[in-house]
Specification:
The structure is a homodimer of 514-residue chains. The first copy, chain A, contains 19 helices and 17 strands. With 514 residues, chain A is α/β, with parallel strands linked by helices. The first copy, chain A, folds into 2 domains: 3-115, Chitobiase/beta-hexosaminidase domain 2-like (Chitobiase, domain 2, 2-Layer Sandwich), CATH 3.30.379.10; 121-487, Alpha-Beta Barrel (TIM Barrel). In chain A, the strands form 4 sheets. The first copy, chain A, has an 8-stranded parallel barrel, surrounded by 6 helices. In chain A, strands 1-5-3-4-2 form a 5-stranded mixed beta sheet, covered by helices on one side. Chain A has a two-stranded antiparallel sheet with strand order 8-9.
Amino acid sequence: MNIKCLIVAASAALSCWNVFAEPVLVPAPRKMTVRSGVYCASVADVGSIEVQEMRDASLPPEGYRLTVTTGGVSVASADAAGAFYARQTLRQLAEGAATGAASAPLALPCVEIVDSPAYRWRGAHLDEVRHFFGKENVKRVLDLMAYHKLNVFHWHLTDDEGWRLEIPAYPELTRIGAARPNSWKRGGKPHKVGDRRVIDRNTESYGPYFYTADDVREILAYAAERHITVVPEIELPGHAGAAITAYPQFACMPEGARERIWDAGWGNTVDVFCAGNDETIRFLERVLDHVCELFPSKIIHIGGDECPRKRWKECPKCQARLKAEGLKETNDLQAWMTRHFAQYLEKRGRRIIGWDEILSGDVPRSAIGMSWRTSQKNGTGDKLTSGAEGARRGHDMVMAPHLLCYYDYRQELADDPFQYIGGHVPLEKAYSFDPCEGVAEEARAHVLGGQCCNWTEFTWNEHDLAWKMWPRTCAMAEALWTAPAPRDFWDFYKRMEVHRRRLISRGVNCAPLR
Amino acid sequence: MNIKCLIVAASAALSCWNVFAEPVLVPAPRKMTVRSGVYCASVADVGSIEVQEMRDASLPPEGYRLTVTTGGVSVASADAAGAFYARQTLRQLAEGAATGAASAPLALPCVEIVDSPAYRWRGAHLDEVRHFFGKENVKRVLDLMAYHKLNVFHWHLTDDEGWRLEIPAYPELTRIGAARPNSWKRGGKPHKVGDRRVIDRNTESYGPYFYTADDVREILAYAAERHITVVPEIELPGHAGAAITAYPQFACMPEGARERIWDAGWGNTVDVFCAGNDETIRFLERVLDHVCELFPSKIIHIGGDECPRKRWKECPKCQARLKAEGLKETNDLQAWMTRHFAQYLEKRGRRIIGWDEILSGDVPRSAIGMSWRTSQKNGTGDKLTSGAEGARRGHDMVMAPHLLCYYDYRQELADDPFQYIGGHVPLEKAYSFDPCEGVAEEARAHVLGGQCCNWTEFTWNEHDLAWKMWPRTCAMAEALWTAPAPRDFWDFYKRMEVHRRRLISRGVNCAPLR
């Protein structure tokens, strides 16, 4: 309409990004010098900017030196990852603050940026068991991870409520284990487990949902292009409900085992993999063989958390194993299994990582711990002692203390439409995460980094997931990329006021900052 | 994790909706009496609530009486639409304020609601020419329209920059007219039309994007289930750039006609359909024949706005037509065309609607006017005189004054990542829209209702579109459903604080309220 034409000029002018504003980068670079002047690329999208790339072995792994002058753009890096991260920085430099789009022609402020990550494990975890999000949503997560320079995707694929990875040798795992007859509906009331009427009204049949080998390969290729390592998790010996529902013979007490997946609760079951049954061990070896065939990751996650001992105590096979292996007490059966699979995977050139419980017993130094508890007492204390303790004992550690890193905990927003499992992790608290907190100086070399954990009992769809991940995952990205404290939350906050608009304009259902 | 299980109860309790709160409904019902008590449906989703439905001819069209007692739910309505809208109200009654999800088991407050719309044309318009959104996004719009009791989808399918409807008899319309070599990229600078270098950097080849007959049938079926009438718009005689680029022989000056679609600007072109060429008239008749075959709507939109006279003045055929039809001046050619197609469509049992320009000449009373200008002067004044004038002259009118109803105008949000064409329509202004404003008492019967117009020159994708449509379309829905002023914006605003959460939890990229 004419009236429109009349105001196009004014509007376009207003929507123009002021290239002289301080560039907004998330995560913040280690060192940035802004010079006067602008480089106008003759192209409209960042991907096609001509960049003079060179290798410089003196730079740290994944690091880069990015130089924008009025004459052009050059990048030096020690490796391909570094060059990739320079591109991500370039994307943000080119992006208008007002729209997620690049201004065209691209106007890049003249800067010199020398940058590299503080930690080499910069992770985000996704639980696809409690709820399943699927290929397209996983790719979306990978895209946003790369954009924020995160490099490890911890993929939680098996648990009590489901088994999401097809294993050709064991079809029942997905035929039975990938579907749930009574999964909680959104808005359901999960605290009345057992009351049949409540269950019928509050639950729905869910699935079958799972990934085939082709799905996985597609996601792995997508992740590789973005320099993201995908670490799959196969939970053992506990959180095995779905597997032993499909194959009860691998539990201590087959007759009871099948019930778990039918009920409608969340959490972990008393029925676990039998530590005494050699068939169970073979089964898990076959599963891990398939995992090793599919996943190039040098590190495989074997779970290990919250394994109840009740069945092992009652189970003759487990008690026999105890004797045969000369173990002192039932507890030691977990360490025995951890050792067994650590060695089994080591023969295949892989290392295990497991939740911090695996470190309680006598396990090889090569085992990596993932610290989720914040004290030796399960989730009670408020210090990161278990992670620190693991590092002190010489284990490489990935820190994910639930009190700071579990994004299924409340954001404490005034205006929040979603359900949370509980807890309290507002943006400022998420930003305060420091993987080395409480770790002795001499043990810090063992801290690989950290990650956020996105458990999904109360996360039903991708909108819900995005709302919980963003903006908190921006805080995680900065906590893992930039040098540790002192970091200034308010500086981060100011940048996030701009950066959040970029996310929203990409259609990310990003929560308010507070 | 155990810690999670420990807090499930607390969390679930907190996420529980307080059914005793005043029910939040958008649009507000005409009359609601809240009684004490709650009806607990034994089902978990609203669709399957058992509702006692009865017909009551004494109720107004689209109206309903909804009664919820502790014993159950009953609905009386004069027609199927009324029963459908009662269901929409039921959905909102059942919805938790905290999550978009229904609480399960459904707890419905006991209420008696007597409700009916103030206007019978409650519309939303979508321009799919400047940018194309596609089937899935159109369905999403239809879903949200129905949820807010809107009942007319005005589908802008043809314009200077594109032709989006496949017409088997004229394949070039979509082969050539559905693609654009130089369409503005997001963030581009549209005020430098003509400068080749700027165009090359700021534009991208766009399309071909168009709908086949099957696509249209799928969308029509989807709309019909939701009691939404789809009114297609075929622009004539102006805004015809795409059509005459595909078939230059239908313009006054074929040699110049082809250029329009190649250039990169927005707005309307000087080249229009030739009023003097009988071939052009036949062509448009064939196109409208196909439209009538496809669309059941009794009303067909023929555009009619902003048709420059320059070519008609220079064109011998047009001047010959002028003489032959005994018309006074070139301007009269548009009224002649309007009359011709009004009669042509009337023979096929349809009525025309057109932008208010069509009323400038001598046209049949049966022609419906769509008022977008707010005075006889193109977009200058500030009163709804042209709409009022149309009604005074006895034309049925649909009001869509750009100063209140164009949602491509700025929302004036502090924190807005998107581009706008200009203007100024914050939520409160959108809410102040009254279709009968300025219309004489005796002419008000001619005011069918109103609609918001979503022009998309500066709207590139569905996230962008949702941000501009919501929450403002909620204001439009209430302005058209509820009785006119006095309406209380702050009462609406308070409800929207809750209702916006419902939209966000559905994944609607809904803008803040202010």
